[in-house]
Amino acid sequence: xxxxxxxYAKFEQVNxxxxxxxxxxxxxxxxxxxxxxxxxxxxPDPKHSVLKSYGQQIKIFKWGRMPAQAIIDKxxxxxxxxxxxxxxxxxxxDDLLEILKEIxxxxx
Length: 108
Known about the structure:
Elements (H helix, E strand, L loop, with lengths): L1 H5 L1 H6 L5 E4 L3 H11 L4 E4 L4 H5 L4 E2 L4 E2 L2 E5 L5 E6 L9 H13 L3
Parallel strand pairs: 1-2
Antiparallel strand pairs: 3-4, 5-6
């Protein structure tokens, strides 16, 4: 999430809303958001319903849920999804921003 915070203004410039979904309960999520002063939206998902609907994987031997990033267009269509194999396997912001620019200029 630090990576997303670092380039938050760039995401705003391409008319993007960042929503982070996590498996923690509401209070734990709120505490994390407050302690880390995150500028984007956080959605607690302790029952894992959102996370399961997007196919996020659980790897017990790698400390739980693997990272997943999805880009959903304004019509609600998933236009990009990346499932990480470890906590460090996430796309670079520049790559996500390039995908967002393409989506925002397409005729979908």
